[in-house]
Amino acid sequence: MNSPVFVGVTVGAIVTGTMSAPAHAATVEQASLTWRLSDCAFGGVPACGSLTEAQQTSGNVAKAATGWQFTQGSGTYDPATGHSAIAFSGSVTIGNTNRGGYAISFTDPVVYVGDGGAGSVSADLTYRESAAAPSVTVPDVRLVDLPAVPNARQWEVTPPWDGVGTPDTPAPVDGKQFAQPLIDALPASLRNWFRASGSSSDAAKRPAAVAVAFTSSAEPTWSPEVTVSDTAGWGVNQIRTVTVKGTGFDPSKSGGPVSGMYVVFGPNASGRYGDPGVFGAAQYLPVAPDAAGEFTTQLTITGRYQDSNGKTWDGLADQLGISTWAAHSHAISDWDTFTPITFAKATKASADAKARLTKKKIRKGTKVGLRVKVVADAVPTGQIVVKRGGKVLKRSTLRVKHDGVKRLTLRKGLKFGKQKIWFVYLGNEGVRRDASNRVSLRVVR
Q1: Displacement of CA 403 from its chain's centroid (Å)
Q2: In whole angstroms, what is the distance from residue 50 CA to residue 201 CA?
Q3: pTM above the 0.70 mark?
């Protein structure tokens, strides 16, 4: 390393054009940044020589016991995502006044935190290689990276040092250095203050912890609200696929025991979080709500259904609707909502029927399978009748669990020769009895 001389550090407020305000940005007030840069830069380390023989500050900064403390910072902060951009002003000068008079200034830093807590500290850089050399300014240089910044209004993170980069001249020791843009912006004679060089001062050059604290105002208020599409005039037996949209769900509640959310149809979920069998439809959304506090999903529902416990729920007698809550253990109640749906007495829906034999020709006395399917804009339950001419061959009941499909076996009542087998669906209170179909069967000796 060259003999130490004078180093100057200035800190202020620049926000680059890449830093856009987050969707739910709050205004940052009274922010502070405490950072000693490194032990070499802060002083009191004999191995660093004369780097810190002279120091001075100006503006909104003072030397505290743990580092230079910059105050009155301002910017934006999204409490939902942790995104923030906070700018400071002030200056700190450190270095040597007797040997060479070189100077390095870091001016107007900005602390930025983006996706996943990945952050950085940037500043304007001004340097001179000697007292007689002209000053050179490089704007907005990234000084250090900040991995895994917590989403909080007060935090402390130590920038990485090992394996950060590999500048060309001279080669660093094990890649230990500040961020590469800082090394690239400095002349060769000044780089070794910010990277390992094999000297006894290397351990004192590593970046010190960056500490930030602030208050924020005008934060968004979260008020969960759910809307359900296409609910007007529903008959209680009708089947509908609805779009469920949620807004105002505080995304900062995610994490820990809270892992996504449930969106369900049925009775009010309050008090029933441990009994999912009572619901007629459900969706688990593992990454909801999004950063804006929103979600969208779909449910296929009907106003009359039988749950897995054997109970029949009826939208005419029971209050049914859409519930939301935090998965998996209902650790919070902030996402609890219930949006009721009103059902009307069903007007009977038309139905369509299809039938298919397992075989088209059988021997007398053997059996044949018949698969019947009823499709309706409601739940097709009720009696079905299989006939040959006027003779009833089979009666059966179509239930909710059959989902409109019934499989029957025919043996008795079949005659020799070619014959028509009729299937007739007799309907229910929500579906008309206008569904029938026929198939041809040949019985041989």
Answers
A1: 35
A2: 12
A3: no
Contact status, residue 237 vs residue 430, Cβ threshold 8 Å: yes
Q: What is the pLDDT of residue 6?
A: 31
Tell me if residue 411 falls in helix, strand or coil.
Answer: coil
CA 262 to chain centre: 14
Q: Which amino acid is at 153?
A: R
DSSP secondary structure string, 333-345? STT-EEEEE--BP
Please state which of the ranges 95-104, 244-253, 255-264 shows the lowest mean pLDDT: 95-104
Query: What are the φ/ψ torsions at residue 42 (nearest 5 degrees)?
Result: -80, -25
Q: What is the DSSP string of 126-158?
A: EEESSTTSPPEEEEEEEEEEETT--SSSEEEEP
Is residue 55 exposed (0-12), middle (13-18) or buried (19+ Cβ within 10 Å)? Answer: middle
Sign of CA dihedral 178, 181, 185, 189: positive
Residues in the chain: 445
Pick the range with the lowest mean pLDDT from 19-28, 85-94, 383-392, 433-442: 19-28
pLDDT of 21 reads 44
Contacts of residue 158, Cβ cutoff 8 Å, sequence gap at least 6: 207, 208, 209, 210
Cis status of the peptide bond prior to 170, with omega within 30 of 0 = yes
